[in-house]
Amino acid sequence: MNREVVKKFSEKYPDVKELFEKHQFLENEVTQISQKNYLTPEEEIKVKQLKKEKLYIKEQIYKLIKKYEGIEID
């Protein structure tokens, strides 16, 4: 998904903006944790969980954009 498209829709639709901001926050967390030379097992689990949550949010953003474009998807 193109980041510029998401930004465009986030300017018009508060629900897309909220999800986009949460996605950005999670992305920053993953980056911050992953910068370490060594991750503890707990940190590795946390990174995996954050990535799963990011993916879920990305899918929700995609569904909302399709909805706002007038295209229904499953």
Structural features, described:
With 74 residues, the protein is an all-alpha fold. The chain has helices at residues 3-12, 14-34, 41-68. It has one domain (3-68). The protein contains three helices and no strands. Helix 2 runs antiparallel to helix 3. The longest helix is centred in the C-terminal third of the chain and has 28 residues, at 41-68. 9% of the residues are buried.
- Characterize the largest beta sheet: strand count, sense, and whether it forms a barrel: none
Helix content: over 70%
Oligomer: single chain
The portion of residues forming beta strands comes to under 5%
Please state the structural category: mainly alpha
Q: Please provide the ordered H/E string of secondary-structure elements.
A: HHH
Number of domains: 1
Low-confidence spans:
none
- Number of alpha- plus pi-helical segments: 3
- How many beta-strand elements? 0
User: Which outline best applies?
Assistant: elongated
Gyration radius from CA atoms, angstroms: 14 Å
| Mean of pLDDT | 91
Distance between the termini: 17 Å
In a nutshell, what does this entry contain?
The chain has 74 residues and is mainly α.
What structural keywords apply?
74 residues; mainly alpha; 3 helices; 80% helix; 0% strand
